Amino acid sequence: MYLKPKTLSEAVSVLAETGGLILAGGTDVYPALGERLPQGDVVDITGLREIRGISIEEKHIRIGGLTTWTEVIRTPLPRCFDALKAAAREVGSVQIQNRGTVAGNLCNASPAADGVPPLLALDAEVELASATARRRMPLAQFITGNRKTLRRQDEILAAVLVPRGIEDAASAFLKLGARRYLVISISMVAAVVRSDDAGRVSDARVAVGSCSATAQRLRGLEKDLVGRAATAGIGSTVRAEHLSPLSPIDDVRSTAEYRRDASLTLVRRALELCVGRL
Ligand SMILES: Cc1cc2nc3c(=O)[nH]c(=O)nc-3n(C[C@H](O)[C@H](O)[C@H](O)COP(=O)(O)OP(=O)(O)OC[C@H]3O[C@@H](n4cnc5c(N)ncnc54)[C@H](O)[C@@H]3O)c2cc1C
């Protein structure tokens, strides 16, 4: 059965009853189905206006669970969101950005999902709604592996919440693929850097995608960056050992060795971009 609820509460009760497949933009759902028809019920959530769009709250910036990549690009946001906006511009093509949602990207949990590194670098949380409760958890916990999340079948990702307080940080996103457009990444990096009044790094976050089952923060590097001069040349802080949380694989897009090498360069470049924007 095809079901199209109009409100979130209707949607979660329909989901509890049917355990159906959630359909948002469909840009991951349909390619995964190929020529097949969906087995079981489909719950089309595109009518849920209440979880669409981005709003600024006291403690968080709330990205509703139906927000598309185009809406991310068009909404005026603090500069710490520049990396997420840059990632949004790289998701597929304009047509895909018009339909595809941030939440769909996270719930699909591909290792190459462009939305994950920028949101990890913003310490984002996800809000999950079911017929019985709402719960929140860090995005870093939510995605547990290749196409695996902690979402229960009766839950809708209602919002992505970005904690406020680092709006003045600079951010950058770099994606490497085999061609310029409509490309699945070989590696991608998001960085967020903030400096203090003395021009030293006070907060640094670096996340790398496509180089492990789930995108990873480089916590050792982040620690080593704090206190450094937030000026050109900061990229030289990054050493190969800083990439040890990554576990790249050989596949059709790249060898593991190339991924590791390219990631090192991307991390350095992303940090240089950030300090150039401070
Ligand atoms: C040609 C093409 C190019 C692409 N290029 C890129 C790219 O460059 N980078 C990239 O990262 N991705 C890319 N994608 C993948 C896709 O466009 C994105 O992942 C997109 O953000 C998915 O969003 P959606 O709304 O279409 O999700 P859907 O396809 O509707 O859903 C994806 C999954 O998430 C679940 N889901 C969706 N919304 C919710 C919700 N609110 N709560 C709970 N579960 C939910 C669905 O059940 C499904 O399992 C591409 C896809 C295509 C077809």
Quick recap:
This protein has 278 residues and is of the alpha+beta class. The protein has helices spanning 8-18, 29-33, 69-74, 82-90, 94-99, 102-108, 116-121, 139-142, 219-225, 256-277, and strands at residues 2-3, 21-23, 42-44, 54-56, 60-64, 125-129, 134-138, 143-145, 148-149, 156-163, 170-176, 187-195, 201-209, 216-217.
Detailed description of the structure:
- The chain is of the alpha+beta class and 278 residues long.
- Helix content is 30%, strand content 24%.
- It is built from 10 helices and 14 strands.
- The protein has a 5-stranded antiparallel sheet, with helices on both faces. A 4-stranded antiparallel sheet has the order 11-12-13-14.
- The longest helix is centred in the C-terminal third of the chain and has 22 residues, at 256-277.
- The chain starts with a strand and ends with a helix.
- The structure holds flavin-adenine dinucleotide.
- Residues 21-29, 31, 45, 65, 90-92, 96, 99-101, 103-105, 107-108, 113-114, 151, 156-157, 182, 184 line the site of flavin-adenine dinucleotide.
Topology diagram in text:
Layout: E1 2-3, H1 8-18, E2 21-23, H2 29-33, E3 42-44, E4 54-56, E5 60-64, H3 69-74, H4 82-90, H5 94-99, H6 102-108, H7 116-121, E6 125-129, E7 134-138, H8 139-142, E8 143-145, E9 148-149, E10 156-163, E11 170-176, E12 187-195, E13 201-209, E14 216-217, H9 219-225, H10 256-277
Parallel strand pairs: 1-3, 2-3
Antiparallel strand pairs: 4-5, 5-10, 6-7, 6-10, 8-9, 11-12, 12-13, 13-14
Bound molecules: flavin-adenine dinucleotide.
